[in-house]
Write a structure and sequence with these properties.
There is one protein chain. The chain has about 325 residues and is α/β, with parallel strands linked by helices. It has helices at about 55-65, 80, 100-115, 130-140, 170-175, 195-205, 215, 220-230, 260-270, 295-315; strands spanning about 35-40, 85-90, 120-125, 145-150, 185-190, 205-210, 235-240, 275-285. Strands 2-1-3-8-7-4-5-6 form an 8-stranded parallel sheet, with helices on both faces. Strand 7, helix 9 and strand 8 form a beta-alpha-beta unit. Bound molecules: 4-carbamimidamidobutanoic acid and zinc ion (2 copies). 4-carbamimidamidobutanoic acid (ALG) binds near residues 50 and 165.
Length: about 325
């Protein structure tokens, strides 16, 4: 590392509601000499099966992230002081051609990796996890995925289409991008198409922490189970904001009742500290259905906790 990382704009000098709309008021990637972690937007929602609108997610999450402060007491870390985090803007992907969008995103993600930059990606719908996982697996080999979601997203096709927001983890498993002994969904709930959904999901390499498990067990015991499953190898974290109850995150395309509270989610994410997290995404924020920035703020805090985990790992010498 050369100079000290350039942090966010000081909110005691420039009011939060002034200035550029980067994530957490961080510098833009072109304003710093190196980027350890890029926050990058993918405004894409052509893969959705129900309500559209996640293409506006990146701008909404950035706008909802202005109140984040530099020190995280829960993990005792200043995430923007340990790592150079910068906002790399949006990756412009084709809204009319899912295959082209996936190819563009995979190429962009591989380029960040080649430059030694890890990604916190803000979607966009869940389709984007597939090209992001391709890039991560190209660098690290098959990875563990911890997937926070109401939905399995290991279905096969929709209307015969293989690349959708309900299918990324089946494709990733088929392509050998996942370590099938170390993948886990967290927050699963709601009606399925049939009992085979869960059986096939298991064959693809996933175990399940159901949303109701949070009712019957403590967050600490969920964290313990998660850490045991993910092990010591590379871990990719994918957070579909609909893992939260619609009361906590109404602004999303396929809401399901009975979900996690934002406190449960943030505490579970903190439990990733010390694991070898190589990349992460936050997807399915659809601001048209949001109220009072509830969903945007929840997503911004999810991003902050994930960056805090990376920063703590950096300080503790745990490198991706
Ligand atoms: N990935 C998200 N958010 N939703 C998938 C839902 C797929 C379905 O309509 O059955
Ligand atoms: Zn979902
Ligand atoms: Zn999803």
């Amino acid at each position: 590392m050369t100079g000290a990382p350039q942090g966010p704009i000081d909110a005691t000098r420039v009011p939060r509601f002034a200035g550029p709309a980067t994530f957490a008021r961080l510098p833009r990637a072109d304003e710093v000499e190196r980027v350890d972690v890029a926050v990058v937007g993918v405004p894409f929602d052509t893969g959705v099966s129900y309500r559209p609108g996640a293409r506006f997610g990146p701008a909404h999450v950035r706008a909802s992230s202005k109140l984040l402060r530099p020190y995280n007491p829960a993990l005792d870390v200043s995430p923007f002081a340990e790592l150079q985090v910068a906002d790399a803007g949006d990756i412009a992907v084709n809204p009319f051609d899912i295959g082209a969008a996936i190819a563009t995103l995979e190429a962009a993600a591989r380029e960040f990796a080649a430059n030694g930059t890890r990604l916190l990606t803000i979607g966009g719908d869940h389709t984007i996890a597939l090209p992001l996982l391709r890039a991560v697996a190209a660098e690290h080999g098959p990875v563990a995925v911890v997937h926070f979601d109401a939905h399995l997203d290991t279905w096969d096709t929709y209307f015969g289409e293989p690349y959708t927001h309900g299918t990324p983890f089946r494709r990733a498993s088929e392509e050998g991008l996942l370590d099938p002994t170390r993948c886990l969904h967290v927050g699963i709930r709601g009606p399925l198409y049939g009992p085979d959904d869960l059986r096939e999901d298991g064959v693809l390499g996933f175990q399940v922490v159901h949303s109701d498990d949070y009712q019957d067990a403590t967050v600490a015991s969920v964290v313990e189970r998660m850490r045991r499953r993910l092990g010591t190898g590379p871990v990719y974290v994918s957070v579909d904001i609909d893992v939260l109850d619609p009361a906590h995150a109404p602004g999303t395309g396929t809401p399901e009742a009975g979900g996690l509270t934002s406190r449960e989610l943030l505490n579970t994410l903190r439990g990733l500290v010390g694991l070898n997290v190589v990349g992460a995404d936050i997807v399915e924020v659809a601001p048209a259905y949001d109220h009072a920035e509830l969903t945007g703020i929840a997503a911004a805090h999810v991003g902050y906790e994930l960056l805090s985990v990376l920063a703590r790992n950096e300080r503790d010498g745990i490198r991706a």
